[in-house]
Design a protein that fits this description.
The chain is an all-alpha fold. The protein has one domain. The chain has helices at residues 2-15, 19-52, 55-69, 78-91, 95-123, 129-132, 140-160, 162-169, 173-197, 202-224, 241-265, 268-275, 281-314, 318-354, 362-388, 392-415, 420-431, 434-446. The longest helix has 37 residues, at 318-354. 43% of the residues are buried.
Length: 456
């Protein structure tokens, strides 16, 4: 009887309540299951990759892949612009407009990436990747070829990723998580086979990691645009430059914010490589990945709320928004407690996970703990602010954060001799001010008291 009662309560939790909340809860549950599997696979990938490559080569791969990922922001914010505009169009039952947004975004992104790719092909022969990555000259030719292969697959990924944006805008982020799960699983299988059949090769590893997401997204795009999202399938007939301006008016601001995020979170590997050596990148990323469990859990929970906040704000359902934010704050507090437990167990967890091949200083774990607590708190309010499109203050704040981050990282890491800890500490210092102004802006908007920059 007790088990039946628990089952009934759990079932009721996921089917009762506002339709928007029910949709979010179902996606959160599915994402937890999928992300849980993905986390297990990603942790296994680290161990298998370290077995395949040595610590230095693994650090080189981490740094190179982070550099390539910088160019994800070449979409000038079109992805986030589409996310908001598509959600608004669906909320108003404007299917033809939604299809126009999708078609215009695909056309614009294709033009952008083709231009960028041709430019890369022109300059790549003149780039000294061994110097960029602070490695020996003997790796120069291999790194140049590897970069060409990875960038080629990245260009395809750049365009194909739009299907994931559409699913997220339609409050179905769990389906996008399936893509990530399968690409990680395929990567794990292929890299494991490589460990048994070849010696450690950056070229084989990079090709595998870059190609798997593209294969999965290509298959997924074909399936979804011929079935569930057939009515939104991109078509040249629906490409309309008039709507390009709508997408980029908000998208340009998102673009600047994304560039700031890039500088804050994606330059760490390069800074550590240049200040110290590629091998130092490995323990930094081990600690980052370990504590990213907290941010991953929170992002799973909060992702459906971005588009849900958009819909609720359009429909003026303020009561639902307030209630949802209160719940998210409570979840954040619980996750902070979990992060402290993870800190206490960190040394043991590292040994079980990666053995004794890599040493992660406890001070680095403390730095990562501070970072995930701050960024998770910020997410509560930034996701609401992004959802309602009032991002002008975030725009200016992001610019300031990006200008300060790199010099502060160098100051703390090199001149104050904090090492890698100084790099993550600099990031935490930069993002801390938004922990203050973001809740204030949320309060002003939700209570209809936002004026000036608070309302833009």
């Amino acid at each position: 009887m007790l088990n039946r009662g628990i089952f009934t309560y759990i079932k009721g939790f996921f089917v009762k309540g506002h339709i928007r909340s029910v949709k979010a809860k179902k996606n959160i549950l599915a994402s937890f299951l999928l992300k849980g599997a993905s986390v297990f696979i990603s942790f296994a990938l680290v161990r298998v990759t370290l077995d395949y490559l040595d610590v230095t080569k693994y650090g080189i791969w981490l740094t190179l892949s982070s550099i390539i990922n910088w160019f994800v922001f070449f979409d000038i914010g079109l992805g986030n612009g589409l996310r908001n505009k598509f959600a608004q169009a669906i909320a108003k039952n404007q299917e033809e407009l939604a299809k126009t947004y999708v078609s215009t975004t695909y056309a614009a992104l294709s033009l952008i990436i083709i231009t960028a790719y041709v430019l890369f092909l022109t300059i790549n022969p003149f780039l000294n990747w061994s110097k960029i990555l602070n490695t020996g000259p003997e790796l120069a030719s291999e790194l140049s070829l590897l970069t060409l292969i990875v960038v080629t697959f990245f260009a395809l990924h750049f365009i194909l990723k739009i299907v994931g944006v559409i699913l997220t805008a339609d409050q179905k982020p769990a389906i996008k998580d399936v893509f990530e799960l399968f690409s990680s699983l395929l990567s794990l299988v292929v890299i494991y086979i490589l460990t048994k059949t070849t010696s450690g090769s950056l070229l084989y590893l990079g090709t595998t990691r870059a190609s798997m997401p593209v294969i999965i997204l290509l298959i997924s795009s074909c399936i979804f645009f011929h079935r569930d999202y057939k009515r939104y399938r991109p078509s040249l007939k629906y490409v309309n430059l008039k709507y390009f301006k709508e997408l980029t008016s908000l998208g340009i601001q998102f673009f600047v914010i994304q560039v700031a995020v890039l500088i804050l979170y994606s330059t760490d590997n390069m800074i550590i490589t240049q200040l110290f050596e590629p091998a130092k990148v490995t323990p930094y990323n081990i600690a980052f990945k370990y504590f990213s469990i907290i941010t991953m859990i929170f992002v799973i929970i909060i992702t459906p709320f971005w588009s849900a906040f958009t819909e609720a704000y359009v429909k003026k359902d303020i009561k639902w928004i307030k209630k949802s934010v209160q719940k998210l704050i409570y979840i954040w507090a619980v996750l902070c407690g979990l992060a402290l437990i993870m800190l206490c167990l960190s040394n043991f967890a590292y040994k079980v996970w990666i053995g004794k091949s890599v040493h992660v200083p406890f001070s680095l774990s403390i730095g990562m703990l501070l970072f995930v607590v701050i960024i998770s708190w910020n997410h509560v309010f930034i996701y609401f602010i992004n959802g309602v499109g009032k991002i002008k203050l975030q725009f200016y704040s992001s610019v300031m954060e990006s200008l300060v981050n790199i010099p502060l990282s160098i100051l703390l890491a090199k001149y104050l001799e904090l090492g890698s800890v100084g790099v993550i500490l600099a990031t935490s210092i930069c993002i801390f001010p938004r922990s203050i102004w973001a809740p204030i802006q949320y309060y002003k908007i939700i209570n209809n008291r936002a004026h000036g920059i608070w309302a833009k």
